[in-house]
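A note from the maintainers: we've had questions about how concatenated examples are separated. There is no special marker in the raw files; a new sequence line simply starts the next protein. For clarity in this README we add a label.
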Amino acid sequence: MGNLYSAQNIASYLIYELNEGHVFVNNQSIQHILTLVECKWQQIFGHSAYQEQVCTDDIGYTIKEVYEAYEKYGVRHIKLPATEFYLKYGTFQLVERTYAIPNFTEEEISIVQQALTQYRFQLLSKAS
């Protein structure tokens, strides 16, 4: 049984992983990889990977919150994950921080890594 995660947190993980490997990532590619993760997750666990509502269309899945967070980048490369505002208990100051990376199980990390590998392969296929 897989856990439910915020798509923002998974997108954050994807951005860090792709940037570490010097792979191009933009809003469209994030949505594409999230679609790959969702399909595999549904196949293995029988439920969605995301807490957010997933919308389907002709080109795949779209997670509105993630799309809107990275919409400002257009087709440009994304270097850092989106930020959220956090209010620490007992303080009166909002702190802006990037979305946290999920604490995946080994099986879940395997699914996400497979999606990243598939995305990299598709990029290489298009380039050649």
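[label: protein 2]
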Amino acid sequence: MRSAGRAGRSKASGVRPARRRAARVLVPAGLAVLAVAGCAGPGPDDARDVVSALGDAVVAGDGAAACALLLPDAADALAEESGEPCAQAVTAPDGPLADLVATGRVVVEDVHVAGRQAQVVTADDTLFLAVSGDAWVVTAAGCTPREDRPYDCEVEA
């Protein structure tokens, strides 16, 4: 006959079988949550940093660094449209990113992230970004809103 205090417990561990089953389910579920969180990718602060780095590169006249932050198709489209290499077009005083750095520095006012896309609003510009690999790249810049229509962007793929 069993004693009342040991009913339903395993002789080997002293833990009830139902609790062992729960632990076997909860541990893998917890690891799955951690794995998904680790794969979340870049966030709003990373998007803000990319836009700030783009502005810093444009202000410094470092066209190569600025173009490296653009989606390659956007950099190619900019070069084709301007008739100059991306590095020259992006740093031109009257170029498509002149408004981004009109105040001499980028002031990020708002960042909106939706999955693998982001919109960064600065004091002088609106930019769109997408996740590429494990980082944000600028897919469109020099964008102005149009009523009931998509943004009109100076730089885009």
